[in-house]
Amino acid sequence: MNKPLPLHHTLARAEALAAVRYHVGVDGGGTGTRVKLADAAGRVLGQGEAGPSALGQGVAQAWRHILDALQQAAGQAGLSPVPLAECALGAGLSGANLLADAQDFIRTQPGFAAVLLENDGFTTVLGAHGGRPGVVVAAGTGTVGEVLRPDGSRGIASGWGWITGDEGSGAWLGLRAMGHAQQAMDGRVPVSQLAVAVWEVAGRDRESILAWCAAAGQHGFASLAPRVLDVAEAGDKPAQALRMQAVVALEQLAHSLDPQEELPLALAGSIAKRLLAHFSGNIRARCVESQGDSADGALLLVGSALNDKTGTR
């Protein structure tokens, strides 16, 4: 590609860029944060993990977990503590499309020489295809799809959030599993393996289930998804129906991003990968192995932006 990759939000202190010795790639979602620390040539030196850094769960929490994961990575690289002023950070975060949260994240950055913020779907598509054109359907705690087209343009679908959208995600599956379990408790539908699996987590009486739902949040509902898929594999019909609904939703997402089905397709996230065997033959035929993950894509974002700013592109 001959032009800089587009960024939603950037912050770079030009006078500080000469001090950059390390690149930091962040993949942040509703369940956890993964950080890769690399040298200026892009060679990964260490990795770290911490709690969620989706911006919808709070900007302060996002920065806290990013810094925790970065220090783990720095320790692995023998650089602890890594000086932030010598780091350029690229972050692919869930919720980065919400302008107010993105601006707050940039405004409160703790001293990096540069911060580049994108949604995690775009850094995932960059990492999966090595910065080249392609499609990614990512379904884990949430769901989002991204396409990077040959002309450098891009598109996004889904990623509307777990309350109103994110079809096919872990939270989406969990919400529907809970609805089924509640109906089974009422006697509105027969008791199934799926209902029992939910009760084992949330409780076997009305009061316990109401309390669990009130406290669960996105991560809590997503934690039910592996149980949905486990009992589906064991032959439970309601769970199999939910699994098929998720497959259909993710296939629709892939088609919306590349209607001509011309670009390579990579799957990301625990739910998408677990559903692969149930996708149609055409979808499976288009799937390619990801070259890297969202944190790798964030590192590509940093390298591209810094090269452009320093005139080396």
Automatic annotation (TrEMBL):
Query: What are the ATPase BadF/BadG/BcrA/BcrD type domain coordinates in residue numbering?
Result: 24-301
Name the CDD domains for this protein: ASKHA_NBD_GspK-like
**Designated name of the protein:** BadF/BadG/BcrA/BcrD ATPase family protein
Q: Which organism is it from?
A: Roseateles flavus
